[in-house]
Amino acid sequence: MSQTQEIHGTVADGYEPVREEFAAFVAAQRPDYEGQLCAYVHGRPVVDLWAGADRGALYAAYSSTKGAAYLVVALLVQDGTLELDRKVTYYWPEFAAEGKGSLTLRELLAHRAGVVGTDTGFTAAELADDRVVAERLADQRPFWRPGTAFGYHALVIGALTGEIVRRATGRTIQELHEERVRAPYGLDFFLGLPAAQEPRFRTVQPMAPTPTQRALLEELPDGPRSLPSVAFNRQGAEPTDLESLPNERAVRAKGPASVGGVASARGLAGLYAAAISEVDGKAPLLKPDTVAEFGQFHSVGYDLVVRGHRSYGLGFQATADTWHPFLGAGSIGHSGAAGSQAFADPATGLAYGYTRRRFAFPGGAAPENDRLARAVHEAALGG
Description:
Layout: E1 8-11, H1 16-27, E2 35-41, E3 44-51, E4 59-62, H2 65-79, H3 88-91, H4 105-109, H5 124-127, H6 130-138, H7 157-169, H8 173-185, E5 189-190, H9 211-219, H10 227-231, H11 249-254, E6 261-263, H12 265-276, H13 288-295, E7 299-303, E8 308-312, E9 317-318, H14 319-322, E10 332-335, E11 341-345, E12 350-356, H15 368-382
Helix pairs in contact: 1-15, 2-7, 2-8, 6-7
Protein name: Serine hydrolase domain-containing protein
Organism: Streptomyces anandii
Keywords: Hydrolase
């Protein structure tokens, strides 16, 4: 139990229960816990709390990175630069190889492409470079008939969508994120961490499972050619260790759009606040119709990779179904493997961000997000 861990930061009037909930959670953690919680409501910051490090600390975003990539895609669809129902090959002709020619951008975003990885796996250097990943996936035979089923493209969806963005605009997702989202709002959410920001990064600490949790992890099926192994790149000559992946400077520097982002909770929440709300006098990045389309269910049911129920909109996780059922329908967001969570609930104007340093059991949104997000949501409704 942590007896000396302090809770820092502020909450708006009416959000005191959120501070109490965060403090109660932290008090039950290891003494070395580090984490941050932030929320906006209708573009106004209402929660900014942290423990275990200074306010400026940055953490690995893992798959919460995907939310930033999907926001760029949504902006380009809103602009008319990308069309959801065009075939991927309209933008990227080489993708037609091995029977993938009929797949649309809409289907690709909904994790229906079937190219969750490659037969031989990726090296660490390849995974850090979205263009290299995309080039290899263009030639890959899909693991299911494209469009007929769905499965989480965990390490590659950012490269797939990024190649379409690059072909259509001549710019990378990382460049467009910097120019249209991060820099204008001053967000601590980097897809490509500058060297000058490196001292702020806190390396990922490995999971510390209890004996019971370790036994559960060891029971998980993980054949060398299984879809989960392919999707999480565990079958090749250089199996990926998710816990250490963002600790590589090359990954942080290039910011691969599936897993390579670096952020604070303020950066995570700020991105979703900017997406749906006026922030600092700036109009929302997305129009309500765009938010509604990207938040509409596109893939719901049995996910072939995670081997359980999942729901996706266009790229974004359908957060109200997958993680937090108390949220409004049409909420958009994405969790990250170490435990981060970020989302926007258009019904309440809530934007939420949470990040932590130690890799959480069992991976994905850390369990504490349910109680923390619920506390914020209840306070927002009360306001």
